[in-house]
Amino acid sequence: MDDTNDTSFVVDEVSNVIKESIEATIGSQSYQQARINTWTSNIVEAILNSLTKLNKPFKYIVSCVIMQKNGAGLHTASSCFWDNTTDGSCTVRWENKSMYAIVSVFGLSI
Amino acid sequence: MNYSTLDPICSKSSHPFNTREVKEMLEQLIQQTIDQQNEYDSNKCTQLSKELSQIIKDAMKTLNYERYKYVIQVVLGQCQNDNLMMTCRCLWDIQTDNYASYVYSNTKIFCAVTVFGLFYY
Prior knowledge:
The complex is a heterodimer of chains A (110) and B (121).
Chain A (H helix, E strand, L loop, with lengths): L3 H4 L3 H16 L9 H18 L4 E11 L5 E8 L6 E8 L3 E11 L1
Antiparallel strand pairs in A: 1-4, 3-4
Chain B lengths: L7 H4 L7 H16 L7 H21 L5 E11 L5 E8 L6 E8 L3 E11 L2
Antiparallel strand pairs in B: 1-4, 3-4
Helix pairs in contact in B: 2-3
């Protein structure tokens, strides 16, 4: 019986969860200053709910950055002190005509 | 006989994650590293964001939190209008896990660093 899927972080599965949440929240929208607070909250909460439904023994950290396309530069980096065999992360970079969204999910096994 | 690994007596850390201590450390490190940057340079900032996350990870190890895993996230960008929002949510144990964050900005560059500490049972 293969139980590695139950106890390790599966990047592809999480990546799909992230993409679906982003598309559902801002897929068809243009950048609006007044709404980005709601959008970022909705994206992270939707992702966290979907991850919880996977029923894996993990603690999760979900972070979302939405930035208007203005020509400004942005860099994100992360470093982690954890167990490489069980823990993992997934970062998705998404864009449309008016904005960028960068979503990172970190999963740490308990 | 099996003892639950989530026994409440064993699961509490004797040295829990201290937000204030970590935030002070972050302020010091970021001001030392970024204060010298007067201009936004794309290549330098790529390198700088990676270096900063490594430096902070190494500094977290010196704080000696026993049985804690860390995730350090650095967001570094060019200051150009108010056009960025960053949000975070976590699914964790509120009795043992916590985070510390610090945002630095000058006229050219902003830097937001978040350190998450998660207890390993």
